[in-house]
Hints:
Strand order of the largest sheet: 1-4-5
Largest sheet: 3 strands, antiparallel
Order of helices and strands: HHHHEEEEEE
Shape: elongated
Number of strands: 6
Number of helices: 4
Distance between the termini: 84 Å
Strand content: 15-25%
Structural class: alpha+beta
Radius of gyration: 42 Å
Helix content: 55-70%
Oligomer: single chain
Amino acid sequence: MEKQQTTQESSEAIQNTAAENQNPENITEVLEEIVQEETNQVLKLEQELAELKDTNLRLIAEMQNTQRRGAEETKKARDYAISNFAKEIITVKDYLEMALKDQSGNFEMLKMGVDLTLQQLIKVFEAHQIKDINPQAKEKLDANLHQAMSVVEEHEQETNTIVSVMQKGYLLNGRVLRPAMVTVAK
């Protein structure tokens, strides 16, 4: 738009100058001035274009760097997210190994050691939001939390209620890690 206006102004200037000075030398000078002005305008626009291209390249590079850094941080978070849990569970493993190495033959001490190890494991679970799914007898079967392993004839209970728990289930932050394995009334 600006270029059209400049070209139109130049044409008008040529016509005005030509009308004033019918001399061919004057017309040549005027034309040279107009060409020089147009050339300067083109150079100015080329410089602006180069600056915009440079800015665009820098913005693209910055965006790519930001994406790369974000991907690296996500990978690190994923790779090391379990590190705290792993450190705590290693302690439980150490306790179990010590219990297996015990040669004293003192069953009560071994039982107490295993109980302390279980308490340590429960603390680890609590710290990492791992909760038991331990349904009670006569509780209604919930397919989201329980897995029916067998069905038995039980006259004292309603259909699809839990008769017994074969194995507890677990939740991690409200999401099922393993459903509780149960026996269900027919």
